[in-house]
Structure formats: structure tokens, C-alpha cells
Amino acid sequence: MSDSIPPIEKLNDESPQVFIEAVNTLFETAPPLADRLLAARPFKSYLDLIDKAEAICLGSDLSDQDKLDIINAHPRIGENKTNLSAMSLKEQGYNTRQGTESEQDRQVNATLAELNKKYEATYGFKFVVFVAGRPRTEIIPLIEERIASNNKEQEMKTGMTDMMLIARDRLKKATGETRS
């Protein structure tokens, strides 16, 4: 996955494959979302594209399976580094220059792995959070709190909303494009 994406004007005219690859840079690989965005072309800007994605994800037109496919496209927080995209590695605060994990990383990741299992057993989908550069240690109490809330509908909405925050942050890093 590249940190850069083509200008939106060019993307609007690209082949479906190139369009979907660029969209996956922002949202991970979520075919139900990418296919709907492809059908909604053209977009005025990437922010317009993300706004459309948010409307799709938070709207009522998606099946339950489509929602699961979209939210489960994101990697688990604390996932083994080999299973993460380049963007996710940076977002989750891994030192990509270091060849091995520190003991603290292993302990935090083991705790997150257990909490991910508990979250997924509770809700039936992955925990998604906009990390925003926070250390993974700060995510532990957050996931515990969200498990304790025991509100599946709210958790799906929160996860989808955080996916859009992640996409906006990725867009900003890739292009400098932000809402003014």
C-alpha cells in the first residue's frame, strides 16, 4: 500500500481496479464499501468520497453482512506486525525500523489480543478505534470500557465512525487535504 494517492480528478477516470486500490489505501480492503464508492463516481474531492463512505456506512442500505465485511476489513489493534498494512503499522505506533518487538510491546500486544477476543465474542466484529498516535497502552482501558458498554448497535456505529476518522487522517498524511 502506498502512502500517496492520485488526484481525485484522475481517480474518477481510473479503471475499477486502480480506483478500488486507492480506496483501499483509505479504508483497508472492504469490497462492499469500495464497490459502492466505485458506483458513486465521480467525486469532487477525497473529502467528498469519505463523506459518501460515511453516509454508506452509517446509513440503512447495507446488509448486516456488508457491515461486518467493512468493519472486519480493519486489522486488529496490536495485531502481529506481519499482518498489518504500512499505514496501520505507523498508526499503531510500531517502530518499523526495529527488527523485533520489545518485551513491553509483546506484553501490550498479548493483552490487546485477549481483549480483542473478548470484544469479538461480545459483539461479533472487530474492535476499530482511531489511534491517532496514542500509545497502544492507552487503548487497553478504552477497549475494556467499550466491552463493558455491551451495546452492539452503538459499537458498530462507533467503529464505522472511527474508520472515517482513520480515512481522513490517512488522506491528510497522503495529500495534505483537510477540511478547512
TrEMBL record:
It comes from the Eukaryota. Pfam families: OHCU_decarbox (PF09349). Residues 14-172 form the Oxo-4-hydroxy-4-carboxy-5-ureidoimidazoline decarboxylase domain. One of its GO terms (biological process) is purine nucleobase metabolic process. InterPro entries: OHCU_decarboxylase, OHCU_decarboxylase_sf. Keywords: Purine metabolism. This is Oxo-4-hydroxy-4-carboxy-5-ureidoimidazoline decarboxylase. It comes from Absidia repens.
